[in-house]
Amino acid sequence: MPVSDTTRVLLIEDDASMAAVYRSYLTGLPYHVQHESNGRDAMSAIDNHVFDGVLLDLTLPDMNGLEILKHIKEQELPIEVIVTTGDCSMNTAIEAMRLGAKDYLVKPFSKDRLLTTLNNTFENQKLKRIVETYQEEINRRNFCGFIGSSLPMQRVYQIIDSAASSRATIFITGESGTGKEVCAEAIHQRSDRNAAPFIALNCGAIPKDLIESEIFGHVKGAFTGALSDRDGAAKAATKGTLFLDEICEMELSLQSKLLRFLQTGTLQKVGSDKVEKVDVRILCASNKDPLAEVEAGNFREDLYYRLHVLPIHIPPLRERDNDILEIANSFLSQYAKEENKDFQRFDPATESILASYEWPGNVRQLQNVIRNIVVLHNGENVTPDMLPPPLNNTLSSRLAPQTEASPQPLVTEFTPPQSLADKPNDFDYQRGSAQNSLSSLIRPIADIEKEAIEAAIDLCDGNIPMAAHYLQISAATIYRKRNSWKDN
Q1: CA pair distance 53, 68, nearest whole angstrom
Q2: Domains in the chain, please, with CATH?
């Protein structure tokens, strides 16, 4: 039996004796069967309960079973329908299949016929759902605030999905502007805490003498300016998520208090002796390497291991293949609408510049560039002259003629060997000097491909996405091939 767990089946049959027979066929098997004897009750059951499949008699006392099929199709319900009827006309079968029925059983049918049909139907349903889930994972371009379908981001999405339901602490790393807070919000949105607050605190943007109060709160009179009791971010995020951004900027003295808070789930407001219990999930992030900060003495080792349970690294924009243009087009559409401009697309030259630029400021920099273009210009196409510095001279500087040295040809010029008629009688064409000559003139495709890729990378000053653009392959292909070369 390929069906796993309990499969919920609605049996719609007006003949009580036949319904009893069908139910007996499924007794002791992993099926939960609910029986309805008329169309009205069957429709109510479908609208108010969840079923994996329906055994549908087309001849019902109050309606034609095809009406139920139409209802399931119109509502786009994920239910597999198997039609059962004594009318074996081809027109009826065709109409039922057109409306979404998966199979057709002509009464009377045996137990084996019924079980085979059910097993095949639900096995196909399971495989279909697996394929749909896989395709969704591979092809999704928008994910909880993220834009991009590149392989590095698909891995990030998968980790977020897996980690969201856990209570474990997550440490997010990545360069400035890559979307670490977007990642934290995505984890919160996909967790069972999404109905409670998400509180974000940037530890690097708050004065050092106020950061403890911002996290844990204070009581009246705790320090100059504390005119009343105040809850901190940890209390405000009760039942929800507290996101501590740039946590490596936190003072060592406060790190010990944060560690105690994480270990005990309790806090003390500044100036108070009262210990309060708080239910909050901690997410943290840094644009620095936290382990390097530990080695440099700037971050507590015990706090690092307490926080670094589930690490997520957000890749920089330059490593995200074609995501640059996907994100740029999304921002262009958004800002053109907001500013009431006519922009529709980027022209090819502009796309080339955007794809080849390094983007040291990552998504945040790309966002600012697109907004700059939309605010200061108008038109249907974004042209290179609309780009702000330093992008407006990127392409010309990178593709300037190579004056110092020209790249060597990838294939040596071939001179045919001497004809057989002119060779000495003792010349062995297959094993002699001609063979040695050909081996030096004809080179393996793998060697030529490697030289072409390395030459393109050199011409693009080491910019792999740009080299991939002009070679008309993906950057991921280049990274994969370079790793294979290292292994060899």
Answers
A1: 13
A2: 7-135 (3.40.50.2300), 143-315 (3.40.50.300), 318-398 (1.10.8.60), 420-487 (1.10.10)
